[in-house]
Amino acid sequence: MFKDHTYLSGTTRTLDDHFRAVAQEVDDQFFKNENKKAVLDIGSNDGTQLLHYRTLGYDVLGVESASRVASVAVEKNGVPTIDDFFNLALVEKHALQKKFDVINASGVFFHLEELHSVTDGVREALSEKGVFVVQFIYMGSIIAHKAFDQIYHEHLLYYTLRSLQTLLERHGLSLFDAHITPIHGGSMIAYASRTGTRKATARLEDLRAQEDQRGLHQLSTYARFAEDVQTLREENVAYIHDQKRSGKRIYGMGAPVKGNTLLNYFGIGTDYIDCLVERNPLRKNLYSPGMHIPVVLEEDVTVPPDVYYVLAWNFKKEILARYKDLVDRGVAFYFPVDPEI
Q1: Is residue 68 predicted with pLDDT exceeding 80?
Q2: Distance of CA 88 to CAs 115, 122, 172, Å?
């Protein structure tokens, strides 16, 4: 599955800006007054995150399993990239002569089948005082935004700070800091190090306390979440049905993987939505799994719809800004999940 996927990090400005901010924060917080260090990015995609570290003067190396995407990183962005899966065996195979001061894993740790081998690999590749930066969609945010569509076949785990800490502790690593960022509807950026090398921050302890207060480790919380998702389905189906009955032309905005969870659970197919409009050229002429809605590129859309049903809702601000002229002309942009709740 991850040898030939079509996701490109550099497609959206919002994500590019986010990765720039992450690199700057890591530099400011840990390495501002030191000689620039080495950064390893696990699941480095097209190299977008590493480009920002390189701008700050870091040596960079990516590991990306999808061959086409790794080629984009090397050939378009000039980012050195190992086209392979990251795990302990890869670290040993390449016999890396240096340790990495920063290891980044963005949107990777909830995909892993080789979870423990990967975490062992992180420990082995991390320098003595190095920082492991884990970026992941946060379970607390999924519940808060009713973002059930972020549950799909690629995501094998859904993390709270407690569950992540439990994993890391089994491999000689410990969290020492964390904060929530708006990207992807509410992601956690967690910082870990070798156990015993860094002291936990006050904001990490505060986030841990909030998890307990919100009941994120209680089954009843997830039962309520299921009820909320059912209500969300009823609201969305009613809206789409009313728009179609009124003779409105409806296009989907974006063809993200998570959109297929939503479309299939809501039962929204080509009887409601004519096509899914994408900017990523790797998705041209594909179809959405299950509902078989055709994907077309933005540049090929000659007649705008009356309604854009926004599956890429996590980029709400960027989408509304980019299509301001259509908004001004009366095209409706409906967000089935609202990341600003």
Answers
A1: yes
A2: 10, 8, 14
